[in-house]
Amino acid sequence: MSDTLESLAHALLDAARKAGAEAADAVTVDGTAVSIDVRSGRLEQAERAEGIDIGLRVLIGKRQACVSASDTRAQTIAAMAERAVAMAREAPEDPTIGLADPSQLAQSWDVAALDLVDPAPEPSPATLEEDALRAEAAARGVPGISQVDSAGASYSRRRLHIAATNGFSGGYGLTSRALSCVAITGTGAKMERDYFADQRIYHSDMIDPETIGRTAAERTLARAGARKPKTGAFPVVYDERVASSLIGHLLGAINGASIARGASWLRDALGEAVLPDALTLTEDPHRPRIGSSRPFDAEGLPTHRRDIVAGGILTGWTLDLGTGRKLGLPSTGNASRSTSGPPSPAPSNVALTQGTQSRADLLADMGTGLLITSMIGASINPTTGDYSRGASGFWVENGQIAYPVNECTVAGNLRAMLRTLRPANDARTWLGMVVPSLLVEGLTLAGE
Q: What is the 3-state secondary structure (H, E, C) of the chain?
């Protein structure tokens, strides 16, 4: 960890104490990001960003305020602290705010075991451009592709440090390498597009550019001639690349902030079945080489593996200290924050039980229905779970893909939908949210 980030965090705490804060915590972040986009075999855009952000939260009694800056001069730090203290004195009281007790803090962690930083040198812009050009060329080389809308490669390196007046101090780094390609077939109103992308911590783990480009092209060609599907009640298979959205709705509904407000369709579901009996949803913040892994949370509490849903039964909420206090429960070590705001609860690294069938098996069992590969928009009632989203994908008849579809809407109720899930075995295990393709019964389709 950078001595500069650590020293900046402690300088912020010292300034807060001097300005009159009773307690404080600080977040310091620096990073480098490079992105390259190509089009028609030529460089389209190149960007490089380097910067540092610092954030300070001060507490006076049961009042708090947050300030942030990208200027690390001593006079700026002093001014930040004075402003934050003045703001906190005018803020409304909140009996649930406060730092962790020292006895709650993470005492030891193994950042190296998380393997979050690729030791390879930062790639040059020329290397990123070459990767993007290779992906674009592979897509353009597939017959039927009229153009490649975009192909891009990027790299980032980020480091952060968190410190607080309760004695916590810790930090870690993270690298990321990404490559994407969007291909187009057809022209005018008959134009269709699709994409493929990969993102990893280690460049050596990346899917090669040619596979990225070809997959984007093949997905696009499969969408040629899309039309509206039938209207009615049908089963639906959510392809692996969109299935995580369903689990995302569940995670949002059990977030402590929603539960504390009473604005959740799962607010009364603790200890009840929310998934089929055979399914478990596990959070594991310590998976190596996963971008959302973390050795401790944003309040300095230890992170740990837990079953959010075990055998279909909801076992608990996702909590930070504040939402836990509102509910009379301990934090689950899920605090997350930026430099400009206070902590809030957020999960990391969730995985749903995979099934034994392939996606093709799910389609065969479905018989007639919709395979969704892309979604747009969302209308979710947070208190009832009523669900409606725009979708596109493929119409399935007799267990086989019949034709591509677009401009349709799927609707249902999330509480009922989640209880019918049947998973395939195709989840990508290197993602932060590991969710396979999912068969869902009883949805209403609005098409023709």
A: CCHHHHHHHHHHHHHHHHHCCCEEEEEEEEEEEEEEEEECCEEEEEEEEEEEEEEEEEEECCEEEEEEECCCCHHHHHHHHHHHHHHHHHCCCCCCCCCCCHHHCCCCCCHHHHCCCCCCCCCCHHHHHHHHHHHHHHHHCCCCCCEEEEEEEEEEEEEEEEEECCCCEEEEEEEEEEEEEEEEECCHHHCEEEEEEEEECCHHHCCCHHHHHHHHHHHHHHCCCCECCCCEEEEEEECHHHHHHHHHHHHHHCEHHHHHHCCCCCCCCCCCECCCCCCCEEECCCCCCCCCCCCECCCCCECCCEEEEECCEECCCECCHHHHHHHCCCCCCCEECCCCCCCEECCCCEEECCCCECHHHHHHHHCCEEEEEEEEEEEECCCCCEEEEEEEEEEEECCEEEEEEEEEEEEEEHHHHHCCCEEECCCCCCCCEECCCEEEEEEEEECC
Alpha carbons 447 and 236: distance in angstroms, whole number: 14
Extents of the domains making up the chain: 3-221, 226-448
Architecture of domain 3-221: 2-Layer Sandwich (3.30)
Give every CB contact of residue 121 below 8 A, 6+ residues apart in sequence. none
Q: What is the pLDDT of residue 377?
A: 87
| CA atoms of 433 and 448, how far apart (whole Å) | 34
Query: Measured between alpha carbons, how far is 68 from 79 in angstroms, rounded to an integer?
Result: 11
pTM, two decimals, is: 0.94
Question: Residue 3's pLDDT is what?
Answer: 60
Residue reference for tokens 């604005």: 263
- Specify the pLDDT at position 189: 76
CA atoms within 13 A of residue 26's CA, in its CB half-sphere: 28
Tokens of 288: 């190596």
Q: Measure the CA–CA gap between 194 and 186, rounded to whole angstroms.
A: 12
Return the pLDDT at 2: 47
Residue that is written with structure tokens 């995985």 in the block:
351
Q: What is the mean pLDDT of each run of 10 residues along the chain (448 residues)?
A: 82 98 98 97 96 98 97 96 98 96 96 97 97 98 95 98 98 98 90 96 97 98 93 96 97 97 96 98 97 97 97 98 97 97 96 97 96 92 95 96 95 96 97 97 89
CB distance 196 to 373 below 8 Å: no
